[in-house]
Amino acid sequence: MILSNVEIQRALDEGRLIITPEPGPRRPTVRQPHCPYDTHSVDLRLANVVSIPKNIGGVASIDLSGPGEVANFLQSNSEPLTITSDQPLKLAPNRFVLGRTQETVELPIPPRRARCLAARIEGKSSRARFGLLIHFTAPTVHPGWRGPLTLEIINLGPWTILLTPGMPIAQLIVEEVRGRPFANPSQFQGQETPEGVAPKGRAKSSSPRASSRRSSATRVNRGRSKR
Q: Which of 189, 199, 205 lies closest to 106 in space, CA to CA?
């Protein structure tokens, strides 16, 4: 069951859904005519840091067939960029970056309730019509999640698009899950960067075991191109 805007606000009041800072206003006002709550979704905004992938040079392939420290690899092979309203990111056609939401989203799994909440993050039509994709193949926010949401952003349109912090960038659709799931945290749980890195000292229960061999998710094969 998808929650309406009224039910989303009820879930916020009851602590079944936590969005920090909470989007507002809850209703359009004369001073604030823009209300982030659509009929069955709530807008989320773009944070002020984006991650730009580095060109690692030559011919490289990345093996994603198994689990691994994806966040650490991405952080090592990306450049963070702080954007401002005066200096937004000029996203050229066919350029890809990682961003994240300004808001932190939490979907607690209550200990004594037979139902909890999950969510999906989707793009916005006003952005999509210019060719701006906000995510692809990864919309699901699982029960038990806590953290901001990473945005896989690519410009498929013909024009350069300005990415400004605080702009409404995506919408969150909230759904009810029947039955209490057992916890199975994502490797990105508690992330604070677009790549998915958690604060130092915070262990990730889903991280793979340390090994002298590089994990398959971060193994890069380099070689000269064949002519």
A: 189
CA–CA distance, 224 with 195 (Å, rounded to integer): 28
Pairing assessment for the beta strands 49-53 and 115-122 based on DSSP bridges: unpaired
Q: List the CATH number of the domain containing 170.
A: 2.70.40.10
The number of domains in the chain is 1
What are 191-226's pLDDT values in tens digits?
777 777 766 543 343 333 333 334 344 444 444 434
Give the span between the Cα atoms of 133 and 144, in whole angstroms. 26
The whole domain housing 130 covers 5-197+219-223
Map residue 73 onto helix, strand or coil.
Answer: helix
Tens-place pLDDT, residues 174-183? 999 999 888 8
Tokens at residue 96, please? 């890809």
Q: Is 224 helix (H, G, I), strand (E, B) or coil?
A: coil
Contact 76, 146 (CB under 8 A): no
Residue 140: inside a domain: yes
Both tokens of 128, joined, read 């999509």
- C-alpha closest to that of 192 among 147, 139, 151, 152: 147
**pLDDT averaged over every residue in the chain:** 84
Residue type, 169: I
Active-site residue (options: 7, 106, 152, 192): 152
Q: Identify any residues that bridge with 20 across adjacent strands, giving them in sequence order.
A: 104
DSSP letter (8 states) at residue 26: S
Q: Is 69 a catalytic residue?
A: no
Backbone angles phi, psi at 119, to 5 degrees: -150, 165
Rounded CA separation 66/213 (Å): 13
